[in-house]
Amino acid sequence: MCERMTAAVLYRHGGPEALELRTDWPLPSVGPGQVLVRVGATAVNNTDVWTREGAYGLHGRPEAKAGWRGAVNFPRIQGGDIAGVITATAADVPDSWVGRRVLVDPAFYADAREDAVPVGLLGSEADGGFASYVAVDAAHVHDMSASPLSDQELAALPVAYGTAMGMLERSRIRSGETVLVTGASGGVGLALVQLAAARGARVVALTSQSKAAALQEAGAEVCVFRKTDPVALRRRLEAVAPEGLDAVADVAGGPWLEQFLPSLRDGARWVIAGAVAGPVVTFDLRRLYLHNLSLIGSSMHTRAHFASLADLARAGTVRPRIAGSYRLTDIHAAQEEFRRGTHVGKIIIVP
What we know:
351 residues; alpha/beta; Quinone Oxidoreductase, Chain A, domain 1; 2 domains; seven-stranded mixed sheet; 10 helices; 18 strands; globular
């Protein structure tokens, strides 16, 4: 095997120029308990762009350049979504794994429990999948030999669908409930629509009018539109859910919290995993406690959440929508399309 590979390497926080394509990057070594995966496909996520830009801020310093866990150790190969084939194993890992097609859980966890919280991510705290090969812990690979999904479809799952699974599980969204999904046409939003509909929830998607058909195809029963007058929008929600929404799965943040809080029934849940519409919000705390509402923060997934997602992938229960596919050598063009936000589904990168 050649000891060099192609990789997109992030050298610092900044614009697209901070991400450099290298064709001579050292092949990763396999440490104890690890396997070497030849990357078949990966995908673009908000976290890739925000980490490059240093857009996460620090506690008390929201303007500071930082990754989601603080300082990033440069140089770094990004890419938390990884589907591929195992080509080598460490001495303490059975070599029967060699040749298997796998999906990689990208999270690092606080401890060994199945419900441990994530404290790191491939592509942020360790090198990820924007490369020909990646070394990962064997405990994080899930055998996809029996999955009907392609490598590109599998690569759409880990970050976006893992985050969506975490949101649905932490907010206990069940069959028969009415849930509003904000930012519904993005990677996590579309995953929420598909996964919530798959468990029997009634999905209301907040989106733009041009993307409504794609979201209804994905499982949304009703679409409401962002540019609608706020009063008319609230009346539309009242008509859709006369007793109030059971839950909101929010990946946008910003003004939607204050605007839609009155649309929740007593005892409802609001789970949030993003802030693309604004990270700093105001709302009336009295509406929260007087109506016994739950505001839940959700970052990524647990081991148990990801195992459930892997089961769905093996069964082909959920098929991600692929919005576009690029070669690794065209990663800047892939991220440019991603930032335009005109797509519905995942943008895939194939090494």
